[in-house]
Amino acid sequence: TSLLVALLWALVTKSALQFTPVLSRPDQSSRVTLEAAKRKAASAKKVDLDNPPKRPLSGYMRYMMDVRPEVAKAMGDAKITEIAKEIGARWRKLPDTKKKPYQKAFEADKKEFEKQKKAFLDAGGVMPTRRTRGSTRTGKAKKDPNMPKRPKSAYILWVSDNYAALKKKVMAKDPGAAPTEVMKEAGAAWKKLAAASKKKYNTEAEKLKKEYTKEMEEYRKTNPLP
């Protein structure tokens, strides 16, 4: 009997030493949720809500920018619309094997754009709306000319100040460059611009935004929403 009691006591003692209260263990789902929130907050700090990510150029647009100088030179004094028409005809006749590099570059940029778009939206940003092909303004109420105009963003203010220099830089590399190339250069330059250099434009944009808000409040007093 004493031997049996000793064995039972040994088993009870061993179980007690190995036992870990469930309440002391961290809840796995809560920890994962907390980590996700931290990552999201950290990511949000790096997102510039004044500048939504730009949609990537299509395969055709990339091709157009590549061949435009050559086509423009060959066609001499032809109108821009005629040059565009010729490039479109060449693209349609282009074999799929030669279109592939342009489409591949577009797909790669599209994936990156989707990542940036998700981060932008998760941080509280709002993507600009796009008009679908074939859409029309017919039937829409005419915009009131007295309605306050939306303020310019910091980026647009900066482009306005630097457009001439940006255009000169792009045209020096490619005299036949399209306006889209200038804006592409502007976007890249803005991203690299130091925070100290952006401060002036961010401050001005905030000032314009506050003025716009006040003007809209006054406007709505006599022009309430339907």
Q: Please tell me how large the radius of gyration is.
A: 30 Å
> How many strand units?
0
Q: Write down the overall geometry.
A: globular
H/E series = HHHHHHHH
The CATH architecture of the domain at 147-226 can be named as Orthogonal Bundle
What's the CATH superfamily of the domain at 147-226, by name? High mobility group box domain
CATH class category name of the domain at 147-226: Mainly Alpha
* N/C terminus separation: 92 Å
Kindly report the oligomeric state of this protein: single chain
CATH topology of the domain at 147-226: DNA Binding (I), subunit A
Helical content band: 55-70%
Specify the structural class. Answer: mainly alpha
Strand residue percentage: under 5%
Instruction: Please count the helical segments.
Output: 8
Largest sheet: none
Mean pLDDT: 78
| Stretches with pLDDT under 50, minimum 5 residues | 19-24
Provide a brief overview of the structure.
Among the domains are: 49-123, DNA Binding (I), subunit A (Orthogonal Bundle); 147-226, Orthogonal Bundle (DNA Binding (I), subunit A). Helices cover 69% and strands 0% of the residues. It contains eight helices and no strands.
